User: What shape does this take?
Amino acid sequence: MKKTFALEDLDCANCAAKMENGIKKLDGVKDASVSFITQKMTVEAEDGVDFDELMKKIVKTVRKIEPDCRIIM
Amino acid sequence: MTRRQKKTLIRIIISAVLFAAALAVTHIIKLTWWAELIIFLVPYLVIGYDVIMKAARNIVHGQVFDECFLMALATVGAFAVKEYPEAAAVMLFYQVGELFQSIAVGKSRKSIAALMDIRPDHANVIRDGVEVTVSPEEVMTGEEIVVRVGERVPLDGVITEGATSLNTAALTGESLPRDVGTGENVLSGSINSGSVFRMRTTGTYKESAVSKIMELVERSAERKAKSENFITKFARYYTPAVVLGALLLALIPPLLFHGEWAEWIHRALIFLVVSCPCALVISVPLSFFSGMGGASARGILVKGASFIEALSKVGTVVFDKTGTLTKGSFGVSAIHANGITGAELLDIAAVAESFSNHPIAQSIVRAHGKHIDSSRIGSLSELSGLGIKAVIDGREVYAGNRRLMESIGVSPVCSMGCSHDMHETCVHIAIGGVYAGHILISDEVKATAKSAVGALKGAGIRTVMLTGDSNKVGEEVGALLGLDEVHAGLLPEDKVSITEGMLDGKGRRTLAFVGDGINDAPVLTRADVGIAMGALGSDAAIEAADVVLTDDDPMKVSLAVRIAKKTMRIVRENIAFALLVKLAVLILGALGVANMWIAVFADVGVAVLAILNAVRAMRPPRAR
Assistant: This one.
């Protein structure tokens, strides 16, 4: 499953790159992309993964890297 | 400016005033070191408290190489070595730079997004005889809507009442308005520039041209280019490496070579200031985004930055003939009558062909254009592979190819002196056993096809045409357009194998395939860059292609290549500029020539300049 989310207050491009890396490393994530330019995040989960559970982990990762940034869900 | 940016601006002003006051005071009277520290600490904290707080928070989270942390460390270090004014000034300039950067990125993002945004905001739908304004998503298939002057057509449909001219610039980049009347199709996204009209929708908003384009454009940021990935990778090593360099610079000279601690720590702090790879990490994706935005405003929808990269390295462009270089529809190109008038010949031919649904027959009927009285036909039979035998107005008529003429003992002659080896298809007509002339039918070459091929060749690109037509037709068109190579008589699977053969032997430059998307999806997928032309109607083509041209002008292919080349040049400029400036500052800093002010410029100043440069990719490249 693939979903796209808007991001708010994503202020630094390097953080976007770090988030992308961090999310890619999470279990159950097949691919992820965070675009600083479009302020959007796309997450592709592996089959059979509970997306809501995964999102919790993703929110945590994002918060750790850039506390100001919010994922609009 | 956003609220946040305004707040930062106010803080910058307050801090700058306090800083100037502090400078003035220390200039006039000599203060003790702690008094001096305090009066510089005030402007420093006004401007830098958030940076310090963020740095502290990130340390807790284990994010050591965070930009804020490094900035905080650098300035606190400067306070430690008693460079008070410099510490405050560096933080102040850093924030000024960050503000500029944020404004510049925000502005360019908005202007590029505006270029791409063709979303209609409402639809005036007629329900129970009353006009109601709803959002386009709520309109159902088959409903009637009213489009006023200046409004965007919200959904795809057919005009039911009224005639107007439409500005399709947002869809195709074509600035000439298109005239449409009752019964004609209109695409969503065009702007009504003529007069009010009514239309019936032929699909929902989700199926409309606008949503297809928007979806394509919005997903384009996902496919990152190699240079983007290179930069992110580079950034991961750059910061730790520079920080390590700073550490060595601070420790080794004082420990091993009796250097002065304060002096070398000061030099090391310069390293920390330039350790953020921001200029690169922002400007490279922004350049790609800006190039894609500029392209989409000209009717070239690129599915991702990686295809900008591939397009810029195109060495071969393979065209599928029908629908790309030619219009893909047959038309009567000439009528050569023999003994009767051209109009009479066309009239007889049209009557004879009126029951056939062969495309050639239909093109003759279309060219005739008038009502055909079928009572004129006495009898009619189709001779497979030859043509038609009919009795029209009591006379025996044969219409068909040369073999048909030969079979009835008539030899074709041409009063106009045309050679029958033209690339056109020829329909010969004999009336009452006498040769009456022939009608030339051709798949018309598009008006811009020749200049499109010429533009590509001018850029050093090999042009190849594939066609399922006969060798003769293929070679004629090839020679007419000046193509480098022609492969004719191909079946669809041959097109795939020929393209694959060229893909194997192409070397480092890429291969682009241009098709109309109707039956060439496999080749579109195989090519490095699959370009689908005029393909807004076909989901399969949009899916298979990497670049979608919203109209069917072959000139757009070379424009796409030029935009891609310009974008890549800007990307390279930004990478080289940012790296060189940072490297220079690192070297000068280590030698003790550069100070922290220069380092701040190398950090945020370079980022702002690179952003401004990136936005250039949005504007069209100059034509050669």
Summary: Residues 376 and 393 of chain B are 5 Å apart (CA to CA).
